[in-house]
């Protein structure tokens, strides 16, 4: 049994403590907005917030994060109206969309740490996440918009 | 109002562009439109006329193929609504007009929403056919050509969009496969005892190409797979396949004057002697690349109790192909296949014929297990089992006239046949033409008196598939690099030399001159250089300019300008996204993308050794759409072919050394 604090509620899950958080979210809690892309911490499709910081959920073992605060894309805002999400719509960022939960979670963490990031800061931070459709220019514009409109 | 659309959605925005065309002629209220992708098209009404009337989304054919038919469909539906309203109101049809989803009878002031009309009983009357000349003139369009918001985006910002990998149905189990390390080999399970004792593992099954582990969760299935003891037949002819050896063989073939060449395009009288002393020759190589779509391949299948039907959830570029495969596997008829065509997490050419193995496997597993099965490949499986863009070695031979004009060009492409692998039943061994390799090499816009493009076919030594840009990517890379070489040898320059070649192509010159102007070509800042390429895709035209520098050994592409003429862009913002994505796909193939294989096994594993472009390598991109008022064409591929040669030519201008290989060799 593992106890996790996900999106503001505590859940008890009957899984091995060495299960990656990604699979606990997707297969046990059915929070499928967090995506599997590589399982190796290389693509960022699985990015969630752990105590407010962007982390690859495929690299976290559930047994190590009991008591920590986990936020997924489903818990980022009550109505899908976090400034980053609104900016993502305004800039029409997604194409296939598969990586975008992870991109949004990383962008949101960046802005909470650095509300007015420079372009270099954005590029440095966001280079952790792959987008094969290459929506990168729109991601940059959306982050700049979210920073401005907050 | 729900508009069904036939093109499959893989990120390109077909889910918005196609319904826009219908809504325009239907005079629909766009704010009420939602859309749905067609699954199993049993009546054969939704197929793409440009692809044999089937549901098959590839080659940027969607907008191009559906445009006329969807206008007709929208207009015809509007006509039927008018007839029904006229009958209901008992007024003549011509007096019934429409405005944004509402039917009006001006004389009596009566109105009805489309939805109300649709609930009426359809009167028994012949439907009046709408003629082409009754379609709206372009000047009256209010939806086509506008930047409405994509309908799928809100759900893609909240995680709510469902891909097949997200599907969860009652009683479903998860499966992963230990796949044959070398194509064509079969497994022997030495022991599965260690796998079966793992908590959550339900079963282990041998399949023709693999051993599958069924479990209550994906993670348990992966753990079960790791505990398997399996040996393989080790008799595959691909055991000796080696990508370096293949490239050497292709080079030999390209240089063999007696090679068995399949002529793809020939203009002029063909009497040119390419062994003469004044011939200019160069070689270009493109290595294998992998699709790297973000969602690893997966399928969910639920076979019916009688074993003769199934529900399927799949992200596929071809619903028609997937249904046919499922019916064949189950020995049943297509009407027993309930196909849910899911949003794809990228495709790029990977999700066409993959169903013939992966869907088959999922169906076999579901039938055997008697319950729904979600079969998922790990990223490593996806990389190792890749269907690669074929490697090519291209040899060019050219003769310049005394005035510096290009008089004769022979473009030889040594490569295996991708078409033969993906569509063996349509491969004609008498003709042997492969559009997936050769299309683009015809250089149709260049005025070259003696021209010949030839495919020197080699046996395939890996699995193959089209990759974004298809043949145009590799062949335009080679040709456009060679054109810069010829310009130099002719004592000309990249712009003047190409303008002369394009003198009979107004649309070609249109994009070319536009990009020269946009980029202020040739006036790069200190330490940087510009390179240019002209490279269309089918009925689209494009030209690109790259601005590059080197920071030590690292190639930096700072800016990229493109001018593109699609004829007409239905949904400009989606079109621009496609062009930009294609340019970055092309840039990515320059930088680091390379699949290689040794002893029949792909060497790479995951994104740490196969790395698509990241944000830090993305240049500032400016794209200008040139509206030539021609029929529309798709945007999926058009960015790719121009990107790599423009960058290579910029490197040539900067350093004097022209890269002749994709990916570019590391600078030392």
Protein model, in words:
- The complex is a heterodimer of chains A (150) and B (668).
- Helices cover 35% and strands 14% of the residues of chain A.
- Chain A has 150 residues and is of the alpha+beta class.
- Chain A folds into two domains: 2-75, Ubiquitin-like (UB roll); 83-149, [2Fe-2S]-binding domain (DNA polymerase, domain 1, Orthogonal Bundle), CATH 1.10.150.
- The longest helix of chain A has 14 residues, at 100-113.
- Chain B folds into three domains: 2-156, Aldehyde oxidase/xanthine dehydrogenase, molybdopterin binding domain (Aldehyde Oxidoreductase, domain 4); 164-235 and 297-376, Aldehyde oxidase/xanthine dehydrogenase, molybdopterin binding domain (Aldehyde Oxidoreductase, domain 4); 243-289 and 388-662, Aldehyde oxidase/xanthine dehydrogenase, molybdopterin binding domain (Aldehyde Oxidoreductase, domain 4, 2-Layer Sandwich).
- In chain B, 29% of the residues lie in helices and 23% in strands.
- Chain B has a seven-stranded mixed β-sheet, sandwiched between helices. Chain B has a six-stranded mixed β-sheet with strand order 11-19-18-17-12-26. A four-stranded mixed β-sheet of chain B has the order 20-21-22-25.
- At the A-B interface, α1, α2, α3, α4 and α5 of A face α4 and α16 of B.
Question: Which key phrases capture this entry?
Answer:
heterodimer, A: 150 residues, alpha+beta, Ubiquitin-like (UB roll), DNA polymerase, domain 1, 2 domains, 14% strand, B: 668 residues, Aldehyde Oxidoreductase, domain 4, 17 helices, globular
Write a short abstract of this structure.
By secondary structure, chain A is of the alpha+beta class. Chain A has helices at 21-28, 83-90, 100-113, 119-126, 136-149; strands at residues 2-6, 9-13, 47-50, 53-56, 69-71. Helices cover 29% and strands 23% of the residues of chain B.
